[in-house]
Amino acid sequence: MPTIRTGDVTTYYERRGDGPSVVFVHGAIVDHGQWEPQMEALSDEYTVVAYDVRGHGRTGGSDRESYSVDLFADDLAALVEALDLDRPVVCGLSLGGAVAQAYATRYPDRLSGLVLADTFTPGDWRWPERLQWAMLRGTVLPARLVGYERVERAMVWFQERVRGEEASGDYERIGEVRAGGPRMTTDEFAKVVEALVQFPETDIDLSTVAVPTLVVYGEHEMGFVKRHAALMAASIPGARVVEVPDGAHASNLDNPAFFTEAVRAFLAEREDRRDASTSSGDDSDATTVG
């Protein structure tokens, strides 16, 4: 089982292929298996790495009393360094997208591209969004009583009643991902939820991101996530936005073929621009995708 020490945890990861590096960061309450379609497809041209974020999967928990997105970003930095990855492209979804934003702004010299999928950003949160987000804390007690899977299924059922069945995307795929790895403990669930709840107050200045960036969201995403996609695209110089047809909050699983090809095209264009920049005598990656 491939593991490596990152800070005070032993992180499980999978690494495939050869070429420029891409690191995938999964969403909350799943694990690295969320990225299997992209890992399988992109390993033909790239070194692809997916890992289990602290508290999740085979990485598991730690003795820390609380977590934060900044801590997760520091874990990612330790992983990149330990695996000797040369300025990878970082691709994160939902919680993973929050981690990717924190990483890009805390470690701006340690990545060469950024993909932010089905995610959200600090700053401009309207009061209904803040109220909805704070209610995540209310899932912890029921999760202790009946398990977080049942709580999530109830939330999915409610969302489908309000927004239509397409709102949950291919939810069965999430269950399949979870079935492939260890179950998260309720204590770790609580710490991850708290990290999510606190994220809107995290200090992240996306205007400082100076690498090519792709912002992705599903066609059937929640309204506030679509709004935040526009905010991220407006804040990051030259960022490109792609909507995934038939996608919801896990658009990489809802429409994996479209999502993967969008990422592949982004990676290829980034490499083309990097090569052109190098041949002209400027080997910086500050050029953004327009």
| CATH fold assignment | Rossmann fold
The rough form would be described as globular
**Extended strand count:** 8
Average pLDDT rating: 89
Helix content: 40-55%
How would you classify the helix and strand content by structural class?
alpha/beta
CATH architecture: 3-Layer(aba) Sandwich
* Count of DSSP H/I helices: 11
Low-confidence stretches: 284-290
Radius of gyration: 18 Å
Describe the structure.
This protein has 290 residues and is α/β, with parallel strands linked by helices. The protein has a single domain, classed as Rossmann fold. The chain has eleven helices and eight strands. The chain has an eight-stranded mixed β-sheet with strand order 1-2-4-3-5-6-7-8, sandwiched between helices. A hairpin with a 2-residue loop joins strand 1 and strand 2. The N and C termini lie far apart (41 Å).
Helix-strand layout with pairing:
Blueprint: E1 3-6, E2 9-16, E3 21-25, H1 36-42, E4 47-51, H2 69-82, E5 89-93, H3 95-106, E6 113-117, H4 127-134, H5 140-146, H6 148-163, H7 171-179, H8 186-198, E7 213-218, H9 223-235, E8 240-244, H10 251-254, H11 256-279
Parallel strand pairs: 3-4, 3-5, 5-6, 6-7, 7-8
Antiparallel strand pairs: 1-2, 2-4
